[in-house]
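Feature request disguised as a bug report, sorry. It would help if multi-protein outputs had a clear separator. Right now it looks like this:
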Amino acid sequence: MLGYLGDLWRLLRAGFVLARHDALVPREFRARMPLVFRILSACLRLGAGREADEGRNARRRPGQRLARALVRLGPAYIKLGQFLATRPDLIGAAAAADLSELKDRLPAVAPAKLHAALSAELGARARALLPLPPAKAAASVAQVHRITLAGGEVIALKVLRPGIAERITRDFRALRRGARIIERMVPASRRLAPPALIDIVARAAGRECDLRMEAAAADELGAIYRDSGFARAPGVIWDLTSRGVLALSWVEGVALTDRDGLASRDFDRKKLAADIIRCFLSSALDHGIFHADFHEGNLLLGPQNELVVVDFGIVGRLGPDERLYLAEILWGFITRDYQRLADVHFEAGYVPASHSRAEFASALRAVGEPIFGKTADQVSMSRLLLQLWDVTHLFDMRLRPELALLQKTMVQAEGVARAIDPELDIWAVSRPVVEAWIKRELGPTGRARRFVARLGAGLRAAEKWAQAAPEAGAPAHPAPATPVARMKPGLLGLGVWAMAFALWGLLALAVLANRG
């Protein structure tokens, strides 16, 4: 009972804050809302009072007002907003763009208040870190301190805010309850599965509250960057890392957000921009993992003018089936076989059978054909992706939410790289990575490797079936799966399709440009 009342209070508080910022039922959409929502919004606005900067608030777009309200509400709501920024199919492209600017920079916790937590996490090892100096940076979940150890080594120590895991757990419990209420009261919302959406964000936030997960991601991606030569990452100091503490080697550098700092450095802008694109593509395509918060604040220009990537709290992954699907879609777009592309999506279960395959193929053609004949620097990934969101709406395609990170990261990589070098030819810098990957996945070696892997999986499945048949009464001849069915469509996503399309566009443009 107390838990229910606590959740109710948190939801009411959220409603008041959203109403105060005119973000609960924004005035731009109020006339189209059901009467019950308009009444509820009016009541909450009365209770919430008037925003102090109402004049400026009135000039803000709905997405901007929502972002301000979410910052007021705290870490769980900020994480929800950051996730919604990856879902323009749910909230619209304009609101998604506004939320993509959402930052969770907050005042730092006084160092003395973290000493007890450090001692509890590290025991006697904490003595080498105390007393903590003032924080260099502070976000909603953790803050970073620069520490010089007794031997002279300089490290970056990331420490969770006290009680942050418990607060996030409480807030997401209330959000889950609110999502279930919305799902019951608003039948139209069920297509979006609000409770599932909240669960996805809650799991991601939970991983951010275990810094061992970030340490593992930093170590894995650091090894990938080191092998590729396109970037580097700070090394993990495992002896000083635990659930609530992460120790990394300190990196001197200029953040790509620091325009003045960059202007004072003499470096090759074209190389840095190229490395940003190649760093993302090589890790995602070759290794199936990518840094999923690839904005300027997490990218540095290092002492040797190299690209340095930091903050690995959010990573995305592509499984073998997803990467195979990416290869097949990429090949279909390269050959401009739109009917085959449509067939693959229907067979994989992305487009409901109630839609027309011919119409879907026509929609793919309408998005793809205008790209031909243009140079690579005339095509923006972000514009391509927004067109794909329109197709998503039109054909009721289901998007795997986690893979929306892929689109968001692609757009971030393009934006950051072009801010460094506005004349960047994305295909020219990504072509070596993409071409090598296509040859490997679609060439004879890749096909043979997949055949052997599928054969082994089939033999193991047959062995399990044979062992279970006597007791379960399994049929003598199980129905074979189709090639697309074997790709497990539940593990795939429109995000992979979008990435395939964007990469295909770059390849097609380069081919045509070379012919010209």
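(second protein starts here, but nothing in the output says so)
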Amino acid sequence: MSVLEAPLLWFTIVAPTFIAILFQATVLGSLGPRVLAYVSSAILAIPLFLLAYKWLWGYNVLVDPLKLDLSRYNVGVIALVVDGFSAPLVVGVSLVTSLVAIYSLKYMEHRIWELEHGGLKVPGIYAYYILYNAFSSSMLGMLYSTNLISFFVFLELSLITSFLLIAYYGYGERLRIALMYFVWTHIGGALFLAGILFYGVNAGTFDILTVKEWALEYNKVYAGVKVEGLALIAPLLIILGLLVKMAVFGVHMWLPYAHAEAPTPVSALLSPNLIGIAGYALARFGLTLFPGFMESAKHYLVLIAFITIIYGGLVALRQDDFKRFLAYSSISQMGYILLGVSTLTTFGVAGAMLHYLSHAVGKAVLFMIAGVFIAEISGLRSISAMGGLARLYPTTAAMALIGFMHLVGMPPAFGMWSEMLILLGLSEAYYPGSLYDILLIAVAVIASFIVTAFYSFIAMRRIFFGRPKRGSPLEVMDEFKVSILIIALAGIILFLVVGLMIPQLRDSSLELLALGGLR
């Protein structure tokens, strides 16, 4: 374990928003939005470099030295930690938010001009970065949290800031869609809050992790709590709330509207990053606090996961709007994360966390490419109006291929490792089993992989190959597209260095399962 010499984790949460406010309210604004974009990017990239340092020098836990002890109020200790289990997700959030901050510069100047040209008065670019940085920091805060209350506070901050970003800068009926997004995700948040309050009040603490002198320990209060209904009501509320946040089948209706009509830089954070954190929370909280409930709900969650994968993929095949297609594919990809967690195996849970990182990289690339077409080809979003774009955007086409390969799980994209581990976990969870069960699972797995490959490569063909349907200047590799290229290349690098993550992730996953008696 490594205790940081300075409160860098807190810095990455507070500083981006504070600096953006200074640019809005002081003479720093004269430096221009480009300086703010690069400063924001540098701060949001700090966790990525911290983790690179951790892996190279063998540290398995990073602890921020600044803590807030609220134990006297039965809240627990508000501390920030990155361990082997949260590390892949922190990498994904840090990498994507850092580079989307630079990508946002050209795109949002174009979008604000569009809105103002249409006679609408909207907050300027500095206000956008205040909301964007707060949104990005809130996701890091959730992943750092060792306490249910602090996790919820950051969860609500992510909801409020993303709601405002959609309402101010979105497309179509953006106010109605933002309100629908707010209501649905607030329902998920309210269920989660009710569950953690029911648990925390009866357990006497909201802590999940406790930082000891040389180790990070999970609290084991669950085994000692004898409150009627605690083993049912609390996990039921918490897990239902998280499933709404994940937008799994049955509670997914809000996602295609919100993620398709959000400004594209925000879509690049919503779909790959925010919704997947609910899957992380399901594993982090469910497996440690409510192992009995997770065991009893295992088969139902696996079923929902397969339905989500196949349903999201089939509906994605029918979409003509590129961003709406990507939104439905995100629903499908959340099914893979839910599937990995639901196996209750070390391989499956570790694979789910790696799949978060794979999806964060791949889907961010694809959403950002959708934004390139919107900004540079007269708002082009219709897949049927595309075709042959590889001749006009050859590098962009190559980046899109890498993005789709992440979704499918083809090497050298990082998604191969996550899907392999999830499949191993599923095999372990249902072996030995009846011939009927094995055949049913095999059919579901094959159908899931086929649907994912179909919607990915059919979209790739329709968008980039065939006869060109429009003319356009050849692509220019400005900072707008270079930010996408860096994320795409990072996905390939992660494929090669996955061995640095797996040992800590494996040990952390095994600890979660062992604590609940699931292994």
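Even a blank line would do. Unrelated, but nice: The chain is about 70% helix and 5% strand.
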